[in-house]
Amino acid sequence: MSNNYFNTLPLREQLEQLAKCRFMHMNEFTEGVDALKGKKMVIIGCGAQGLNQGLNLRDSGLDVSYTLRQAAIDEKRQSYKNAADNGFTVGTYEELIPTADIVLNLTPDKQHTPVVTAVMPLMKQGACLSYSHGFNIVEEGMQIREDLTVIMVAPKCPGSEVRAEYVRGFGVPTLIAVHEDNDPQGHGLALAKAYAVGTGGHKAGVLMSSFIAEVKSDLMGEQTILCGMLQTGSLLCFDKMIDKGMDAGYASKLIQFGWETITEALKYGGVTNMLDRLSNPAKIKAFDLSEELKVIMRPLYNKHQDDIINGTFSSTMMADWANDDVNLLGWRAETGETAFEKTPAGDMEISEQEYFDHGILMVAMVKAGVELAFETMTAAGIIADSAYYESLHETPLIANTIARKKLYEMNATISDTAEYGCYLYNHACLPLLGDFMKNIDTDVIGRGLSSDDNGVDNARLIEINAALRSHPVEAIGATLRGHMADMKKIV
Amino acid sequence: MTIQLTDLHVEFDQGFQLKHINWQVEKQQHWLITGANGAGKSALAAVLAGYGDIQSGSTGGLPSPIGWVSFEAQAELIDAELKKDDADITDVISLGTPVREIIFTSEIDAAIAQDLITKFELDYLLNRAFRKLSTGESRKVMIIRALSCKAELLILDEPFDGLDSSTHAMLQTHLSGLAQHTPIVMVLNRFDEIPDFVSHVAYMENGELRHQVERNDEAAYAELYQLLHLKTTQLQIPPADTDTDIPALNPQQPLVKLTNICVKYTDMVLINNLDWTIEANQHWQLSGPNGSGKTAILSLITGDHPQCYTNDIFVFGFQRGNGESIWQIKQFIGYVSTALQWEYRVGTSLRNVIISGFYDSIGLYSKSTDRQKQIADQWLTLLGMQDRADYPFNKLSYGDQRLLLIARAMVKHPPLLILDEPCLGLDDINRQLVLALIEKICEANETSVIYVNHHAQDRIAGIDNYLALEKSADNS
Ligand SMILES: NC(=O)c1ccc[n+]([C@@H]2O[C@H](COP(=O)([O-])OP(=O)(O)OC[C@H]3O[C@@H](n4cnc5c(N)ncnc54)[C@H](OP(=O)(O)O)[C@@H]3O)[C@@H](O)[C@H]2O)c1
Fold first, then answer.
1. Which of A135, B55, B254, B262 has the greatest CB tally within 10 Å of its CB?
2. Residue B254, preceding bond cis, omega within 30 degrees?
């Protein structure tokens, strides 16, 4: 039975690890990929992260090959095709792991314990094991052989983005960490930095973090604002519009593409910019709704953060793993049966501005979710930089997946862990917002404000503008977006 | 009365020809004829004045009298005066015809002529011999004659040439007045002198009337402007940036050597056993039907195809798969394709798009130097887009985007420029713009060009190596 690593630490160290976060300066990466030059990198798994990270690393001049479980090779599964069609060497654990200087574990989190247990005995003395998410180490307390170095390089984007940004000559923001219990040669950081350069991450910003800070913030972000809020919001907004007799195709389209359109504004200028896209009366409406939502939802955000910190979340989920994912699969099927999911988007034109004007409630939900997630994380001791990447920064990226194929696509793209947390959030949040939704009408979702709603109290507007701009997520966001050079110009 | 030129072929002295001219000038229209030097602008105007040997086709509705200002007309007049001199050789000294007599002939409206003489401030010249005038002065006399002859049609071939700015302005104003009742056809080399009354533009190239555009069709007009700009200005390709130099290549080695190339997927073979060597300073045309693997081969060269690691590829001194990064390869290549244009959906400024060529990036993520900005601005000037340096790229027309991406590809003066169907999806005028730009690049001749298109027969001047791909049979 696994042992939660975080819970074994004394409070002093827990706090210290949670607060680990430093934005690294560009000149810390001047050695490029040198630390990995000529080293053999073997990636386990060729899925979303595995394939795309591997393509980048190889294009940066590094030696990359893939090892897959025997069945995947024998059956020529998609993961095998991904690797072979891209001209990579593919081999079994026995063939490749013993030759590896660094083993990149890019299998799904729930497989980490069996996978690591299987490969560890095959690993060279003094080699390095790397993760892109620290769940296995932190929540399952995986013990790694003492001679091995353990690092994490976690791109803060879906795998497809990791590749797309690299090809453009850029990268995605990345968290790196060294597991202090496993750094016998003291070169973990050098390897992690070179790895981040190899994926292009250093161009977009690298946070020096800890396994613990990464896990506790990553889980929080994905369950609440990133996936949970978008799922709950989609279902509630859709049902409301249908309830009010609106065209189902329109409602479906407004939501499917609305999240993407409104959160696009976040990339450029944060929550402030998103609300600035609304007319003044609509902005005031959205602000008021979001304040109301924050009061109602705050206990839920606190509960998610608490469950994540004390390990309740991971142990609950691991119980489901042990139970053949009965809950996860059931909830996934349930989501597929919702009215929103089953109603195709209509083929009417909806202009960019209309998504804002008719989606005031959606804007309010995004604002409330981003701010709550950020506030809750920082209150738990996570540093603002991390909290920003795990909330506001990733929201538009997840919204893109909904635009592609609705909730199905979102839940297929994110990890099982994120998906599990998303359903937990959704189940709690739907009833929580029941009364709130009773007072909602199509002026804030579906039709937009009527023209007689256009009176604006100047003092109130000034107050709201000031409140928006002074939220802490906006200050750190402006700084980090600034670091991303001309990133703001990229679409 | 409508002037109608139908399927006209006309020959002039020195063998110059106008071909396939179909043109109609309506009474209330005012035309500008434009085009590069030697394109046939003046010849077309001269046809209206009755000059040239018509080989075939027909003209109809040519009016009379015609007021004609041109170098040819001026030369003719001066010639006639000189001949008079020759005839009078026996006399003591010929004083020549005084200007007054040259202007005030029977066909002339004397009041208008006098008004113009005053406006041109030529009173003091009236008694002087015409042949004693300077070129500028004799030109003014010609203009006065043309404008006061009660013409049914005015043909003004570069009328502003050699005029100082106040005279130029005066003449513009006067012409605006005349344009109220007399159709005017002008020949101008430069768009920026075009008077407001011009309603239509004819564009000549190689003796053919290639484009006819209505002035108020803004988009078409802007494109024509740009085309003319590229064709007529003697601009040089801006220099490379000495601070971001591309490493020197060994001239003994080929730029690219592909050996026994195979591109295959688990379920199909796209390319089988292909060899291709590109030496420095060779220009190549690559053609083949869709699905023959053109783009795959190019992306093996650029490093964008993942199977570049499983093939025998030598590029720019690197044998691929030995620890080089794709950025080390890309620095030697300029690349333009429709796919790049799709991927390049950024709101960044035109200037930054060009600068991004120094970094081979889509969008700009590095601080650019002043020197790079300067070079980018020179490129914008070359393209006639200097006023739009800060304009967002994604708001640009499709054809302009393509031009800009070619500039982006060329900005670092790469040893190899790959143009993957650069004219795909462009209309005729944008095609010509792109080709004009490519010609300018090929002229400079320090870059090897790979030009890709569908049709082997669509050849470009200056390219003399050909590789034609077939659709590979999926059997190995
Ligand atoms: N998705 C994201 O946005 C994201 C972002 C940052 C970090 N991460 C982290 O990246 C890691 C990989 O996630 P992912 O989303 O890339 O996963 P994924 O797309 O589901 O890919 C998993 C790969 O692992 C293989 N695999 C599955 N079970 C296996 C087993 N028992 N033994 C060996 N191989 C197995 C799969 O191939 P076969 O089933 O064919 O064998 C597949 O190629 C995770 O730690 C995740 O937390 C993900």
1. A135
2. no
